[in-house]
Write a structure and sequence with these properties.
This protein is of the alpha+beta class.
């Protein structure tokens, strides 16, 4: 305690001054005031004593106290101010040859400046539009387009081939902050107090609070209209927050039936939802009028972008030049989720992750769906690898020869990725010429056939193709097969395939004496060929292999002689010397004889023969020797050998397992080996494995041999004063346990149950914790007593 007081005094020099009775307390007065001051001083310093008490209570005693570390926070996405967002947009565009900024001011739109970035120089390419922050109190909706733009710039600089392909075959319009005033102040409305997403001229909203009833009166809606007229997006995503789903038309009160493009909306929305599984869980996709809280709303961006080009009945003013597949993505239930839920750069490609990571992946998937075409990844003799863009569910590819014209036989595998479905097409590697891969796109039928005549949107169907691919074939090598090693009935045979580095087995058949067997199931591919499992039949036959090699089907046929195979059932691996075993001779295939001969021999020992009919049990007695015993079975010219390890015939007596207090006693254990030789204690090792009730092994204990140990009972198989194995171990872990003895000796090992024990909770941990608390309280009280004594002495000296 004195050490603690000294340390506290060192931290606060005023304390040591007050402990000095020769120095009066500051502001000292007559005796009563002095006493009051001293008591007040003690009360003021009481918090320090409480801190000391808490520190003592945190000192671990007998109980295990685990401190959980906080760890570092991985750097991830964050929210930006309006100025930061604008600066990042300008930095992303600077020096990027395919990027330029279009702002609202340059288009003559009054109000806060709205920035958009246009990516792509191909004026005829389809357009993807991504917009955020219709509502200023949904800041995560603006971070997604912003980080999408930054990600595209980063991957462009790194030379990512697929993203360069997409940005060279499509254009992207990115509007991170459509409502700058609301974004800056965290308010839903724009600077005029209106809701931008009720200001579009399709099924217009009536005049009400936050909407003046005059469509296109907000700067944000005007800017959107200018972008749609200039770029006619093929696909558009508008990000929001406050709910979690993807919605598509219809979402207004002008329509109660499905849209004429419901099927393609459903397909694309499902494809977007596939890549959005992160912190928010599953992303539902549904028609807006069937979604809770967003149905039958007038004047929204969603239906205007889709239908204002062709449904003139519900459109106010000029129609748009074309229809857009428009989607509203409500990314999170919270309007502004915590920053640690936004995600990080790595999560974009890894999958899962935060809300911004999800949103960027959805934008990337939308870019892939906007760009119809086939990206060639590799083209060489016998193999073409492509990635298909622009369709959520492309059909099977076609390989076409242009010279001479016609379809080419091929095989393919496919896999779905973030940026399209990848196909690997394999065909005859000897073919040379000009080829093209063509992929049929889905023809999405109208849900409402009557809407066909009024629908002017662009729908994609037909084919997308690669450019002509000039491929030089290779000279076809000769391919043949040969059998390696013997072929026994019910056994296996290895077949070496020469001249084929890579091949695929389609079918393997064997014909024996007019009977056909299919060997395809269970075939093992080896480094140089195949390993086939044969039927339980023998004779001369033909083995046929159908393989695909370099895109070509080859049939290999070779003669195969399958011989009978004789076996001996019931042979153990280990057996005590001098014991017996029951075995059965049998044969697969056509037997040359009905009789079999069984032979036993040992190194340096005599041969013992048994003759018996096939498929008949025989009792065979082993000699009193240690080591390997060889058994062979012969039927006509066919034979097979087996090895049995003859071990000690151990006789083990376990005197018990005893648990007293904290001590576990195992043994004594007495071991003898009646038979050809006595057991040498130095060659026998006894170990106790302690296994918890749930089967978990918790400790190993080796038993020590002692000649002083004697059994307290008589056993005719134990020699007099044999000595035994014994162990003691300190044990305090509560629970129920089993003790299993593992005995190893030359040529073998055995296991057996020795017994069990149970340890009841003694409350040591609780008592230890209470002891720690009690000691801490006593020390604290003692410190108070010492402090009071010091004050009493000071008072006496003061009066003296």
């Amino acid at each position: 305690m004195l050490m603690v007081v000294k340390k506290v005094c060192a931290l606060d020099p005023s304390i040591s001054a007050h402990f000095d009775p020769r120095k009066p307390y500051p502001g000292a007065s007559p005796t009563n005031s002095f006493i009051k001051n001293r008591i007040g001083y003690i009360m003021r310093k009481a918090p320090l004593l409480l801190v000391i008490l808490l520190l003592l209570l945190t000192v671990p005693g007998d109980a295990n106290l685990l401190a959980e570390g906080g760890g570092g926070v991985e750097e991830g996405f964050r929210y930006h101010t309006l100025d930061e967002a604008r600066q990042l947009i300008h930095e992303a565009v600077e020096g990027w040859e395919i990027a330029r900024i279009v702002n609202s001011t340059s288009l003559g739109i009054e109000g806060d400046e709205i920035l958009s970035v246009i990516l792509g120089n191909n004026s005829s390419a389809p357009v993807l539009l991504v917009v955020g922050t219709h509502h200023g109190d949904e800041p995560v909706s603006g971070e997604i387009p912003l980080y999408f733009l930054l990600y595209l710039r980063e991957m462009w600089e790194e030379g990512d081939a697929t993203l360069r392909y997409l940005l060279n075959h499509a254009r992207v319009v990115v509007v991170p902050v459509l409502n700058p005033w609301g974004f800056e102040y965290g308010i839903r409305w724009d600077s005029s107090g209106q809701d931008i997403n009720r200001d579009y001229p399709y099924d217009p909203a009536p005049a009400e609070e936050h909407n003046d009833g005059s469509p296109l009166s907000t700067a944000g809606a005007q800017f959107m209209e200018e972008l749609f007229r200039a770029y006619s997006p093929e696909l558009a995503l508008s990000f929001h927050s406050g709910r979690r789903f993807i919605i598509y038309p219809w979402g207004c009160s002008a329509h109660f039936e499905r849209s004429p493009d419901h099927t393609i909306f459903e397909e694309v929305a499902g494809s977007l939802a596939e890549v959005a599984s992160g912190v928010g869980g599953e992303m539902p996709s549904l028609e807006a009028n069937t979604a809770s809280g967003v149905s039958y709303i007038k004047g929204t961006w969603l239906d205007w972008a889709y239908a204002a080009s062709w449904d003139l009945k519900n459109t106010v003013g000029r129609p748009l030049p074309s229809s857009t597949l428009s989607f509203t993505v409500e990314i999170s239930e919270e309007k502004a989720p915590e920053e640690n839920l936004l995600g990080s750069w790595d999560e974009i490609e890894e999958g899962g992750g935060g809300y911004v990571s999800e949103g960027v992946r959805m934008c990337l998937r939308a870019l892939h769906l906007t760009t119809p075409g086939v990206e060639v990844l590799q083209a060489e003799g016998g193999s073409i690898r492509i990635r298909v863009h622009g369709d959520p569910s492309p059909s099977e590819p076609q390989l076409i020869s242009l010279d001479p014209p016609g379809l080419v036989e091929f095989n393919y595998t496919s896999s779905e990725g973030l940026l399209g479905r990848e196909y690997t097409i394999t065909f005859d590697p000897t073919l040379s010429g000009t080829f093209m891969v063509r992929v049929p796109f889905g023809d999405y039928l109208f849900e409402n056939e009557s809407a066909k005549s009024t629908y002017y949107g662009r729908r994609r169907s037909g084919y997308v193709s690669t450019p002509p691919l000039l491929i030089k074939g290779v000279e076809a090598p000769r391919i043949w097969a040969k059998v390696v090693g013997p072929a026994e009935a019910a056994g296996s045979v290895e077949v070496l395939i020469e001249g084929a580095d890579n091949f695929t087995l389609l079918e393997a058949t064997l014909v024996l004496d007019g009977e056909e067997y299919n060997l395809t199931s269970g075939v093992e591919v080896t480094s140089g060929g195949l390993k086939l499992h044969l039927p339980p039949a023998s004779g001369d036959g033909t083995l046929s292999l159908d393989i695909i090699c370099r895109g070509e089907l080859r049939r290999l046929a070779l003669p195969l002689n399958v011989t009978p195979s004789v076996h001996l059932g019931g042979v153990p691996r280990n057996l005590p010397a001098g014991s017996s075993m029951t075995v059965v001779p049998f044969i697969y295939g056509t037997p040359p004889s009905d009789m079999a001969m069984i032979s036993l021999w040992h190194e340096g020992g005599a041969v013992v023969n048994y003759t018996c009919p096939l498929f008949t049990s025989v009792n065979v007695t082993t000699p009193f020797v240690l080591g390997n015993l060889t058994l062979s079975v012969t039927c006509g010219p066919y034979s097979r050998s087996y090895t049995v390890n003859l071990t000690y015939a151990l006789h083990t007596v376990i005197q018990g397992v005893n648990f007293t207090g904290d001590v576990l006693e195992v043994g004594p254990v007495f071991i003898s080996a009646p038979g050809p030789s006595t057991v040498n204690p130095e060659e026998v090792h006894v170990m106790a494995r302690i296994v918890r009730g749930d089967g978990v092994e918790v400790k190993w204990v080796f038993l020590t041999y002692s000649k002083e140990l004697e059994p307290d009972f008589e056993d005719p198989l134990l020699p007099s004063s044999p000595g035994g194995y014994y162990a003691e171990v300190l044990w305090r872990e509560e629970g129920s346990y089993r003790v299993i003895l593992s005995i190893t000796y030359p040529g073998g090992a055995e296991e057996m149950e020795a017994g069990g024990f149970t340890v009841q909770s003694g409350g040591e941990e609780v008592r230890g914790l209470f002891t720690t608390i009690a000691v801490a309280i006593i020390i604290s009280l003692a410190s108070l007593v010492v402090l009071l004594l010091h004050q009493v002495r000071a008072l006496k000296r003061y009066r003296g």
